[in-house]
Amino acid sequence: MTKFYDTCSLLKKANTLFDDSELFAISSITLEELENIKTSTNRDNDVKYSARVLLRALDAHMGEYKLVIFTNTMLEPIIAKDLPITNDTKILSCALAYEDDITFVTNDLSLKALAQLFFENIESVPEEIDDAYTGFKELVLDDE
Fold first, then answer.
1. Share of the chain above pLDDT 90, in %
2. In a domain, 133, yes or no
3. CA angle, corner 104, sides to 63 and 42, nearest 5?
4. Which helix (H) or strand (E) holds 26?
5. Buried-exposed string 83-92: b where 16+ CB fall within 10 A, e elsewhere
6. What is the total count of domains within the chain?
7. Which of 9, 87, 97, 136 could form a disulfide with 105 if both were Cys (CB 3.0 to 4.6 A apart)?
8. Domain residues for 48?
């Protein structure tokens, strides 16, 4: 079964995406979103860095994943359910058009809810939780 990643889950897996030889698929909309993230002025620097790392990895490993190019005709199942046309539903329509049986991977709660209308197999990328996070940083200052 092929995994089909949305933008959010792909960003969370940026450093380990090609660690195994598992085939996966993404949408051309995801590439557009990643390009927009890396040049955005209102994004967190860590997210922008992850987007740049991910785009470089995708470029270096061209052919090791399937890229589904979005077309407007793919929107038919989305329109049939009277869903709004957004980047999330365009990514979803690309996943629906993919020819293999897939596991849809997303860490986006809204997209996950939409994906449940179409797919049985939905996963999230596990998140690393820093248990030591307290919400503040203790500093000791000196005259220098």
1. 66
2. no
3. 80
4. strand 24-27
5. beeebbbbbb
6. 1
7. 9
8. 2-123
